[in-house]
Amino acid sequence: MTEPSAKAHKKNHLPLDAALDRLIHDPSPETVIALASDARLTEDLALSLLNRRDLPREALEELHKNASVNQYRKVQLAIVMHPRTPRHVSVPTIRHIYVFELVQVALHPVTPADVKRAAEEVLISRMANISPGERFTLAKQSSGRVAAVLLLDKEPRILQAALANPRMTEALIVKAVRAQTGTELLAPAVCRHEKWSRRNEIKMALLGNADTPFARVLQFAQELPVNLLKDVLRNSRLSPNVKNYLRTAVAKRLGSKTGR
User: Fold this and answer.
1) Residue 15 sits in the same domain as residue 107
2) In this structure, are 18 and 69 located in the same domain?
């Protein structure tokens, strides 16, 4: 039997007397890959290795398979958040990490967009089993897409926290207001909100929501330009009462312009 080449030996087995911590920044890809698979690797060494942005994909795969370090949640999270981790490693791992680790993944600036979205999807799928206290924190701190789900929460404090989320957008609120059900608390809350109640697109969505107080319907009908009121009449599922009022409001405003 022929002996393995020196290169193959280096790739698969680091010298037993090697100082592993001195190999963390080794420029050789083969050495780094071998280090990632070494059973003597510790949690701290694995995390130091994962701080390298230039890690080869093969090293990240070896870290994922290395039972000595993949048992640690910090290592799992760092593997998921590394920008060079292959998707077949990062996306399945996302399903096994904790709620607020998922928030970290979704908000980390260098996490690839598709991995962020996968983390958001897992968070949203778990929402029914998350405690009110955790939902309140998520409403305040999560990504806009996750916070938007909490706009329909039945606890007013959670809904209010979602409206105040710094990553919340007008488009997400419009989508939530246009939901078929579950807006009993949301529509009045948005109507009262100092920031969001001023946006024309949101006013238009509220006019088409059956849970919007009629006093606000009257107000928005006066504030919106006539061309936007016409869009509401064409595109929204309005109650007969609101539709008749908006038609009258449009006719009056057009008539007043014509009479000038």
Assistant:
1) no
2) yes
pLDDT at 170 over 70: yes
Instruction: Please tell me whether residues 125 and 192 are part of one structural domain.
Output: no
Considering the domain architecture, whether residues 89 and 107 belong to the same structural domain is answered as: no
CA distances from 16 to 35, 58, 175 (A): 11, 22, 59
Range(s) of the domain holding residue 234: 182-260
Question: Is 8 a domain residue?
Answer: yes
Residues 23 and 89 in one domain: yes
pTM (predicted TM-score) = 0.82
Burial of 127 (0-12, 13-18, 19+ CB in 10 A): middle
Residue 148 vs residues 119, 183, 199, 227, 251: alpha-carbon distances, Å? 15, 12, 17, 29, 36
Cα–Cα nearest to 158, from 185, 176, 184, 181: 185
Per residue in 83-108, pLDDT tens? 999 999 999 999 989 999 999 999 99
| Amino acid identity at 52 | R
Q: What angle do CA 192, 198, 200 make, to 5 degrees?
A: 125
Average pLDDT over residues 16-45: 86
User: Are the C-beta atoms of residues 43 and 72 closer than 8 Å to each other?
Assistant: yes
Q: Could you give the number of structural domains in the chain?
A: 3
